[in-house]
Every structure is written in C-alpha cells, then in structure tokens.
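Case study 2.
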Amino acid sequence: MGIYLSSPKTDKFSEDGGNARLRFGLSSMQGWRANMEDAHAAVPDLDDCTSFFGVYDGHGGKVVAKFCAKYLHTQVLKFDILLGDLTAALRRAYFRMDEMMRGQRGWRELAVLGDKMDRFTGYIEGLIWSPRGSHSDEHTDEWAYEEGPHSDFPGPASGCTACVAVIRNNQLFVANAGDSRCVLSRKGQAVSLSTDHKPDLDEEKERILKAGGFIHAGRVNGSLNLSRAIGDVEFKQNKFLSAEKQILSCNPDINIVELSDDDEFIIIACDGVWDCMSNQQLVDFIHEDLRTESCLSAVCEKVLDRCLAPTTLTGEGCDNMTMILVQLKKSSESNASLT
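Prediction:
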C-alpha cells in the first residue's frame, strides 16, 4: 500500500467548546496517508484561569503523539503547581514526556495506545506487573518505576512534534518543538509565534553536529526532516550530553505574548496545513469564512478540505491534517458573560 492510500480518507473528527474567555473549534483528517498519526488536546479549563491547546504530529507511528495528547497537559499543570512558573513548567513537561515513556511503565502505556495486538499485550502485562494491579488513568501525578520484562525499554523509536498554546488570564504562552506551528491573528495580520525546527537552521545544525550527528539531504542522519521532537530515542543516545543537547532535542522554544482586544484568534496546526497555506493566507481565509460561519470546527473543516490535494503527485496536501482554532473573546464580552 505504501505511505499513500488509493483515495483519501476525508472523514473528520471535529469538536467545539469554550468558556467565558474564549471559544474553540478543531478538526483532524487522515487524508491520503495510510495511517493517522496526528493527535491533539483541547482543555479550555485546565484550571480556573488557564486554557490548554496542543497539536501533536506523529512520525514513524501514532503512539507518541497519543501519549502526549493524554499526558502533556497534566504534566504542565503538575509542574506549574510545583514550580510556580508556567514557562518552566512547560519546558519541564516536554522533557518529562521522554522520561515517562521509558521502562516497563512507559512500554506498557505505549502498548495500550498502540495497535490491537500491542494493546492486548499491554493490558495483560499491566495486570501482571503493575503494583496497582491494573491499568488506570489516575497515574499522572506519580509515575512509579515498575519491574517487568521491559524495564530496560529505552523509549520509543517513533516520535512527534508538539506545538502548545496555553492562555492564562491575558497572557499567551506558546511552546513548540518541531514543525507544527502557532499563529496569532492581530487586527487581521498574521503573527508567527513559533519557529519550524528544521536541520538547516544554524542553531539546530550546530547542536546536531556537536552531538555527533550529521545532516544529509536536509534530514537528521539522513532520516528525519525536523530537528526537535518528543520520542525518537535513537537520536538521544549520547550519555555524555544533557537532553537538550542531543542530536534530536525535545527542548521547546517558548514565546509569551500579552493579549489585548486587537488579538482575534489563534491557530495551532500541523505542517500538513502549513505546507499548503502561508500564515497570512490562512488568517485571511479564516477571517473571510467567519463572516458567514459561526461554528469554529466547520471553519477548520473547510481549511482541511481546502488543503487536501486532488492527487498524490506533488506530495503537498497529502499529509495528515489537524487544526485548532481558538477565538478570543473581547474583554467586554468576557466581563459580560461573568455577570
């Protein structure tokens, strides 16, 4: 079958939600790809004053993206409480994903998120080896070491990008590792809030070479076409270097923006969307569609359909696609909804 299907899967998973401060819509579509490897998280009420949105674009498999969608936001909240610093919490949570995916517990969690055979095996091993006796979702604050046949599991060979937008009061925190992207619309103008981490960037190239890697045909070690990601343990094996200095790093760039009534909406999307539309083109498209469409997930669906290629000849428009659109309420609207 190869990496592409004979015809695209255009069924979409879509969702809408919101609170007094914002509303959001999202949509994801498998498209031409043989497998769906994207995942996402939308948590409008992470705590009383914080909203969390994340897009995770998997490569080499879906499990790391699904793992991040399940756990990254819970770790951000945990470290924020511990450290009292949201920027530090975001950074620590990214590195924590790699730590949590190692060993017996990490192997079992990934197995449960994987295909049917691995899922069954993971459940059985969980029943045998887990000190709690069974699998539970209530493990996010404690991640105890577990003995078992996969205790030496170094982590997953597959990986994912992670682009996260956290809105707290009037501040927007954007954390990004990889080539998914976050863009803010301010008075109709696209404001880029993330950098696509590609191997040919000077900072990325320097780290890769110092860690003993190489770049061939624009790819790390001739394999990956991005230079930061969660997972991908084979690129993180230098025991003499810290996690942020490995060939492939999950260290996120973090941008902080003070929001005002000039800021209209935020887009978080995987590269399958950005390969087909520039930042400003997508902002313009959304502005035009919002004139007649009030459902934000429907706007996202139209973007995905717009980006889907008619054939697989060019490659662009043939990737999995996931997009989250967050519309910010004006301060007057927010105050009105609270009274």
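The chain has one domain: 4-102+154-338.
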